[in-house]
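Methods — Computational structure assignment.
A single polypeptide chain was analysed. Its primary sequence is given first, followed by the predicted tertiary structure written as structure tokens.
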Amino acid sequence: MQISIRSTLASLPLFLGLIMTATTPHAQMQQAFAPTGSLRASINLGNPILANKDAAGKPIGVSVDLATELAKRLGLPLELVVFDAAGKSVDALSQEKADVGFFAIDPVRGKDIAFTAAYVLIEGSYLVKQDSALTRNEEVDRMGTRIAVGKGSAYDLFLTREIKNAQILRAPTSPTTVDFFLDQKLEVAAGVKQQLEMDAKRLPNLRLLPGRFMVIEQAMGMPKNRSLQAQLYLQSFVEEMKASGFVTNALKRHQIEGAALAK
């Protein structure tokens, strides 16, 4: 069968159009996610459930695994931008010094950050001294009670809205909250339940109040001024990571307790 040069040339624009349709969106998505050429992922070491350091000092954890997988799917090199506090991690994204991050969903942060749905739920708890008269979470918000919390953390933002009578004092970072609580001789420390449990084992005469005072919805986020297509891609990515078992397996692999897969 002979194919005329004329018919071949006539179909060439359509052929080229199909190529552009198949390739341009991916290139556009790479640009939307990583205008610098590398996917800069903001990693907060202040939340030990999601990120930590290995023996060599290398960042590891659920958030690092998710960032690595996202970069792989986008065909981009990954650059980890590591911080010791949630507030610093949020600022990096808000100031476009990072492209994606891992944050607790909060309306204050939502002014600059486009959040996905939550992928992990984390409990927030109160810690007190062994001889404290406090026995229930509901007793904390009273005049004369001083609460230590990591500056800029989701717990700080939540308590700033909810606490009416107690006083909030802010530690430099979430991991230093309990030491700050003891140094300042305060009545209560607030933060990630797992971190507080670790501190209660590390230091004598401390105990957690039963239950929780809040649940953190941990999500991925990107600067709000990025394209709608990129935001939808990130939302879809998180849903797939939950449904496929990726998040659950990452929690198990890093031996994380105190966190549950968000539905």
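Note: The radius of gyration is 23 Å.
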